[in-house]
Here is the input.
Amino acid sequence: VLKPAALAKLLTVNTIVFDKTGTLTNGKPVIKNIHTFNNFNESEVQQIAYSLELGLNHPLAKAFQDQDLPKIHFDNISNIPGHGISASLANDTYLLGKAEFAADGQVDQGIWLSKNGQLMAQFLLNDPIKQGSYESISYLQSQAYECHLLSGDSSEKVQNIAAALNITHYQARATPDQKLHYLQNLQRQDQAVLMVGDGINDAPVLAQADVSMAMGSGAYLAQNNADILLLHSKPVQIRQVFSIARHMQHLMQQNLRWAIGYNLIAVGFALSGAIHPGYASLGMAGSSLLVTLNALRI
Here is the structure.
């Protein structure tokens, strides 16, 4: 799915910025470990986290939604992009999200849950790298594209993914605004940027990029702000789109060369009177048909 001129703009790109979760990883995280605090038990904190995340369309939320637990009906649930979720129940306030939001002063790792500022639990998630991500990044880097990784995930997770994919430029715990500023800074350095993402948090930066791609499995808002939609959500499709763009440019150049050459020769013959005007008309129609058929090779 393409917006007008998306393939042509893609050929001007020299920098590619990737989101992590759901783009380079499977986007289906699972809870690997749960650490509880202050005499709260595991089943209790799981039920609270499940109830807070239920109905949210974010990859990390799926790790909690896959459990079949009784729902707690919280009041004033608020999803704060790039930070976490806040909610109230009776006179208690619950926070679920990254450490600086839900558990200030704790290590920036995993998802934290607190009640009235008191620690309840730390959830450690696992989201494996997508098959084909390493090969796609390596290919793009071999074609002189500078690759960056932007994620709202913890520093340790992002650093590990960047190291595994051989990406030297990365930023963790990036909020939507920080992602936007990061991309704008690249553009101020005369970089033409392709942004690849899939989440609601990626919508602003997808809209700002010179060209953008969204995963078909991602959030609708991200898809709606992207120039190109990868229906199968596979990293290998990124290099395929670049190949299609280069092939399109090659065919356009062929057609232009043929059209210019043919018209120079045909006009010369027509002016000299060497051919009948009817045959010249047939020749022009044949030339147009040839150009059209060649364009269909895309």
Remarks:
- Residues 37 and 265 are 84 Å apart (CA to CA).
